[in-house]
Design a protein that fits this description.
The protein is α/β, with parallel strands linked by helices. Helices cover 39% and strands 20% of the residues. The protein is built from 42 helices and 44 strands. Strands 8-9-10-11-12-13-14-15 form an eight-stranded mixed sheet. Strands 17-16-18-19-20-25-27-29 form an eight-stranded mixed sheet, with helices on both faces. A seven-stranded mixed sheet has the order 1-2-3-4-5-6-7, sandwiched between helices. The chain is globular, with a radius of gyration of 44 Å.
Length: 1296
């Protein structure tokens, strides 16, 4: 109790605890982000807290973990400093750029460390730091000049020239000259590959670092003069290049091309961003004319902060030197690699990131002015740097490990942003740019990425990440050329991941770079330009998001879901057919009839969508058809009105007409409720007292003007009155101009309820409940009987809110409390539950695999991988056991890793309605590939939990014990329900009988156990397929339980078998002894069998005994009797038990045969095959002559067998296997071989036709002549001549 109280108090203070933990995290990790393993584990646990009230703790824990992954600032600072110092020559006058390679390509973020070296005491280090910064920032560009010099006050400045890469959005698309005249030299490093020179893409930049902003202001004029003319004294530039540069400089005023980067050390009292922007912006505005004069394209201020990532503020010429907020805190040179220009369809807002390797933006789709923005999404983008990888193994391992690490970091950052935004984001996008060149086969990436995404799929889905893009430079061989490859991942529907690969190809005629599909699959972006913007959300994606937000799948995504589930079914097979799935939509035409149409998804004008699907499944490789009817929850919340009802009706009628399965996917809100809006905005109120509305009103009315306006619409019925000199039209009925406002919806609901009941009786009906099924929606799924419920869905008649209003208080907290899986699965309405829609569709296909493709086909028999003739390893015991082990096998209890096989094929048993009525186990399974329904008995005691009723404060949850081997009201109903389902599925039925009887206590009698027991008889009597009842070892069938499954209920279909260790009788042996072998009978038996007892009894009968002797003998006799009674009771029980043996059952003809358990699988397989083939033969015979009885047909088949096989083999008629082989040979004509059965059926057909004609002529002799004339007109001349001859001979006298 103390633990419970502690838990209650703990939860009561959860808000304060959250606050305390968040403060502790800040205190512990605010300054030093390094973590011990123990703390890491604790923080990782905190990040798993998913409830909204714990969001702040999870957020702070995640932020602390992100910070801990980076090496400490001091460590990185010291490493960078040692690299710089090692690069300086011994005299300290210059440095070797080669030694700086490590810094330029460092994988770690160094931009928070590097700026401090701009102000290093050693001038050469300052120069080196500026160069490293430029080379690292411009790594994707082609630097073709880099020169250091100093201002008059000794400040270091670096000037550099670079060229835009070919795929840069600002690069002018012109054919690139290959003239050797523009061949370039490199300065101090071979880091950058040679490239063709295009003067139109040439840029010049300067980088300068000042300690204070005032220093920059003072030296501005000197800094700007760097752009006055090209650096002609540099040995790096040829004369030709100078000429080109001069030409470009002339145009720079019209189209500025120069950039200026200014680093400024932050003052101790760090100003906030707004203050900095104001100061820098004011300066930029004041120098605007000068900046334009010198062709400055942009000026970027880098504010270097101690121990922190620098701040960046960029001012562009195109914005009149106002700040470009998108590039705030981002080095603009990196923006090209982040491809921010592709986000131009969105208004972007930069979101601060703890992880500086990433840039995160909140994008709002650009809309027309005044329109509401509905498309918000996060774009997270990152660049990965590393030196090129020279082996395939290293490349693949690096890409895999780095990719996964980055994905986790991306998800962490997104989670932080996701929980801190006020708008709902969807279609969030990840972009990762791998700068290094890796050596590998691109097709390998797809496999690796798919497995990675699947691992984190649920988290990505929760963060609404629906699109991702990877850019990688790949060499197929170590010496091959680098190919830029793009990998696009899209999962719009949430269950299917579409991956497409592209390579970037430049069109030589236009100079534009575009995507070209890589490999066999042609992706949707094939042929599109690389810089194509991301498209904003279309109507389909909006609807998809709406449906997914409600917890279901968009209706037009279900066909693809069926296809993917079907491919999953084929995964275990060797081959799968082409065109495994085809689908067409069923639409109502103007006349209200169904037509097939392939239209754009989302084109529906009603809230129901119907599909006809053809599925090529492993058991029907040639294909099977199904009709799928689904609610569109995005159309008027999936409610039912007359148009929806009509489409549902027609689609269901089509399924019945063709005898094919009907699948209903329920996501609805019941019957539609509406109001006449055209009247709603017009009506007036006649108040009793216009000055005091609380005195009430008399009626609602329309003014003459309003009445005239809507009278033609037939929206209202009115009565004209005159009141207070005013003409009024009192509203008596509101009809409404639109259809579907009220009772007509209920009539339509009644129609489809009746149709669903009819469909269940005629065809296979399966329902999948996703999101919710309300009112008529709930009845439709129940009327279809076979219900699969998604775990987060509910099946209800009335919502929790409405019930609370009726009850006058908040009783129910959610709809799940009323109709969630904990209610509907436990009461048998739902046959099974699934975690999501995809598993629901997969379950539908699994169920269908046991069922015939239509009403006219036999059950689908597949080739069994489990041997038919194997013995059954798992043997039922006398002690209570789990009967599922007997059916499907179990891990060996004694040998680790071994398997004990069960009765049915391995992994073929699928249980349904498991938590309901647990004393009976029902499901479907396969025996040697033959599908059949299964009913077995739970031998253990189970618990039935009856939940408390929240509407009744005094009610309590109850747990009731239910004994095994007994039919209770719920388990009897479950048995009857399962038999009815299997009958309509055309499945044979296997019953493993092990019942001691029905529970006849007062409560169970009150709960109608008698009625549900009778239902079992009704269901078995109507059964049309073979029913094989088997009493397994140590099982028993007693009293009323025998009665309801005795084969005489349905002698044509039912057969009863028993194991040699089973028992059957009216009562159990103990009960029989209690009634029929009482104490007096036991005493008689003792006297007859026990010599000592008999002697004492005889002595006691001697008349001359004295009183004392008589008393002594009586005591001895009584003692002997008491001594012998227990053992003689056991003898009596054994005696009674011997009346219940299979031997007696067989002798009395109540069972068909005694079958030993270990061989039962083989026997029942051949018996079932025989019965099914005989049924096919019977149907063929009945087509030929429908008047034949079952007994007659059976004897005919036997006669044909003996005629075909010979009298010597007549005894084989008792062998199921031999008869199966004979029936298969004669029912399937092969190689033109004559079939005994087919030949005999032809004669039967002929005899029946003649008999029918004779009877018609006898009944109607007047038509005999007309019939003869008709017949002679339709026969050949030769046949006519033969008839004439026969008639002539009939007229002459008979010859002697």
């Amino acid at each position: 109790m103390t633990e419970v109280l502690d838990c209650i108090f703990s939860h009561a203070q959860v808000a304060k605890k959250n606050m305390l933990v968040a403060l502790l995290i800040d205190q512990l990790f605010g300054r030093d982000p390094t973590l011990t393993d123990e703390l890491t584990a604790i923080l990782t646990e905190f990040t798993q807290l998913s409830k909204p009230e714990n969001a702040k703790v999870a957020l702070r824990a995640r932020q602390a973990l992100i910070a801990s992954h980076l090496p400490s600032y001091e460590l990185r600072h010291n490493q960078v400093e040692s690299i710089f110092l090692s690069a300086i020559d011994m005299y300290g006058h210059q440095f070797c750029p080669e030694n700086l390679k490590k810094l330029i390509l460092s994988e770690n973020s160094i931009f928070d460390v590097l700026p401090t070296f701009f102000y290093h005491s050693n001038q050469v280090v300052r120069m080196a730091a500026l160069e490293v910064y430029v080379r690292r920032a411009y790594i994707a560009y082609e630097l073709n000049s880099l020169q250091h010099h100093q201002l008059q006050d000794g400040t270091c400045i670096i000037n550099f020239q670079f060229m835009l890469p070919t795929s840069h959005p600002n690069r002018i698309s012109v054919p690139i000259s290959n003239n050797g005249h523009f061949d370039m030299n490199r300065h101090g490093s071979d880091l950058y590959m040679d490239s063709n020179f295009s003067p139109l893409c040439q840029r010049m930049g300067s980088m300068v670092a000042f300690e204070k902003f005032e220093d920059f202001v003072r030296n501005f004029d000197e800094v700007i003069t760097c752009f006055a003319e090209p650096v002609l004294d540099s040995p790096l530039f040829t004369e030709a290049r100078s000429t080109l540069y001069n030409e470009e400089y002339k145009n720079s005023k019209e189209d500025p091309i120069h950039i200026l980067n200014v680093a400024i050390e932050a003052s101790e009292q760090v100003q906030d961003d707004d203050h900095l922007v104001q100061m820098l912006g004011t300066f930029a505005q004041s120098k605007k004319a000068l900046l334009l004069e010198y062709g400055i394209r942009r000026i970027t201020f880098l504010i270097a902060q101690m121990r922190e990532y620098p701040k960046f503020f960029t001012f562009r010429a195109r914005d009149e030197f106002a700040e470009d907020t998108i590039y705030r805190n981002l080095e603009p040179a990196l923006a090209f690699q982040l491809e921010l220009n592709r986000l131009r369809n969105f208004d972007l807002q930069a979101v601060p990131c703890d992880n500086h390797k990433m840039q995160l933006y909140l994008g709002a789709a650009k809309v027309e002015e005044g329109k509401l923005v509905t498309d918000y999404r996060f774009f997270i983008r990152a660049i990965i740097r590393h030196s090129d990888l020279i082996t395939k193994e290293a490349s693949f391992e690096y890409l895999q490990n780095e990719g996964e690490r980055l994905l986790l970091e991306v998800m962490d950052e997104l989670e932080v942003a996701f929980n801190n935004t006020t708008v709902r984001t969807d279609c969030n996008h990840i972009f990762l740019n791998f700068v290094p060149t890796v050596i590998m086969d691109p097709s390998k990436i797809e496999e690796s990425v798919r497995s990675m995404v699947m691992r984190y799929g649920s988290r990505l889905w929760k963060l609404r990440v629906l699109q991702a893009e990877l850019k990688i430079n790949i060499r197929l061989t170590p010496t091959g050329t680098a190919i830029p490859i793009r990998l696009f991942l899209i999962t719009e529907s949430g269950y299917y991941l579409d991956i497409s690969l592209y390579k970037e190809v430049t069109d030589p005629s236009t100079g534009q770079t575009m995507f070209q599909s890589y490999g066999d699959k042609q992706g949707p972006l094939h042929g599109m330009l690389v810089n194509s913007p991301y498209v904003t959300k279309d109507l389909l994606q909006s609807k998809r998001f709406q449906a997914q937000s409600l917890g279901t799948t968009y209706v037009y995504d279900f066909p693809e879901m069926f296809k993917q589930a079907l491919l999953k079914l084929w995964n275990g097979q060797d081959v799968s057919p082409i065109d495994v799935f085809t689908c067409t939509e069923l639409v109502l035409n103007q006349q209200g009839q169904l037509v097939q149409m392939n239209r754009v998804p989302g084109g529906n004008e009603v809230g129901i969508v119907a599909f006809r699907m053809k599925l090529k499944t492993p058991e029907y490789a040639e294909g099977r058809d199904i009709i799928v009817i689904a609610n569109d929850i995005t159309y008027k919340i999936g409610s039912f009105a007359p148009q929806e009802d009509l489409l549902f009706l027609r689609a269901s009628e089509l399924a019945r007409a063709e005898g094919i399965p009907r699948i209903y996917i329920a996501a609805n809100s019941g019957a539609r409720i509406g109001l006449a809006e055209e009247v709603q905005h017009m009506f007036q109120v006649a108040w009793v007292d216009p000055d005091d509305p609380y005195k009430g009103f008399k009626y609602l009315y329309l003014t003459p003007q309003d009445y005239t306006r809507i009278s033609s619409l037939n929206s209202v019925h009115c009565e004209h009155v005159e009141e207070n000199g005013e003409s009024r039209y009192v509203i008596t009925d509101i009809i409404g101009k639109e259809e579907g406002l009220g009772v007509e919806n209920l009539r339509g609901s009644g129609t489809i309820a009746g149709e669903s009941s009819l469909a269940y009786n005629g065809i296979i009906t399966i329902s999948l409940v996703t999101c919710r099924a309300v009112g008529i929606g709930a009845y439709l799924v129940r009327l279809g009987q076979r219900v699969i419920q998604v775990e987060n869905s509910h099946i209800i008649l009335t919502g929790a809110g409405a019930l609370n209003k009726v009850l006058g208080r908040d009783v129910y907290t959610s709809n799940n409390q009323l109709g969630g899986v904990q209610i509907m699965h436990n009461n048998g309405v739902s046959h099974t539950t699934v975690p999501d829609d995809f598993e629901g569709v997969y379950c539908i296909l699994n169920w269908l695999s046991y069922m015939p493709k239509d009403n006219h086909s036999p059950v689908p028999i597949i080739k069994a991988e489990d041997p038919i003739d194997r013995e059954i390893d798992c043997v039922p015991s006398k002690a209570p056991y789990d009967c599922r082990a007997m059916l499907s096998g179990r891990p060996h209890p004694g040998i680790k890793g071994a398997w004990q096989s069960g009765f049915f094929d391995h992994n073929s048993f699928m249980e349904i309605m498991r938590p309901w009525a647990q004393t009976v186990v029902v499901g479907r399974a396969r025996l040697g590939g033959i599908p059949l329904g299964v009913i077995a008995v739970e031998t253990r005691t189970v618990e039935l939990t009856i939940p408390a009723d929240p509407a009744n404060p005094e009610s309590e949850s109850k747990i009731i014990q239910q004994a095994g081997q007994v039919w209770f009201p719920d388990s009897a109903f479950k048995t009857a329900q399962a038999i009815k389902d299997f009958n309509r599925e055309k499945l044979p039925l296997m019953v493993f009988a092990n019942w001691r009887g029905f529970s006849g206590g007062m409560k169970d009698m009150y709960d109608q156990v008698l009625k549900f027991g009778a239902y079992i008889v009704d269901a078995l009597r109507e059964f049309k397929q073979p029913v094989l009842v088997y009493i397994p070892p140590h099982a028993e069938l007693r009293g009323g339980s025998w009665v309801v499954i005795d084969p005489t209920i349905n002698p044509l279909c039912m057969e009863l078998y028993a194991d040699k260790e089973s028992r059957g009788g009216v009562l159990e042996a103990e009960g029989t002894v209690e009634i029929k072998f009482r104490k007096k009978d036991l005493v008689k038996t003792m006297r007859r069998i026990d010599a000592e007892y008999a002697g004492l009894a005889e002595q006691l009968g001697t008349p001359e005994l004295s009183e004392e002797e008589r008393k002594k003998l009586s005591n001895q006799l009584k003692a002997r009797e008491e001594f012998l009674l227990p053992i003689y009771h056991q003898v009596a029980v054994q005696f009674a038990d011997l009346h219940d043996t299979p031997g007696r059952m067989h002798e009395k003809g109540v069972i068909t045969d005694i079958i030993e358990w270990k061989n039962a699988r083989t026997f029942f397989y051949w018996r079932l095959r025989r019965l099914l083939l005989e049924e096919i033969a019977k149907q063929e015979i009945l087509k030929a002559n429908k008047e034949l009885s079952d007994g007659h047909i059976q004897s005919m088949l036997r006669r044909w067998f003996v005629e075909s096989e010979g009298a010597v083999k007549a005894y084989l008629w008792e062998s199921n296997q031999d008869v199966v082989e004979w029936l298969e040979k004669n029912l399937h004509e092969e190689d033109g071989r004559c079939s005994t059965i087919r030949e005999n059926i032809k004669f039967l057909k002929r005899d029946f036709a003649l008999k029918h004609i004779r009877s018609l002529l006898q009944l109607n002799p007047e038509v005999a002549m007309d019939s003869i004339i008709y017949m002679t007109q339709h026969i050949t001349p030769a046949q006519r001549a033969k008839i004439a001859h026969l008639l002539a001979t009939m007229e002459s006298p008979a010859s002697t």
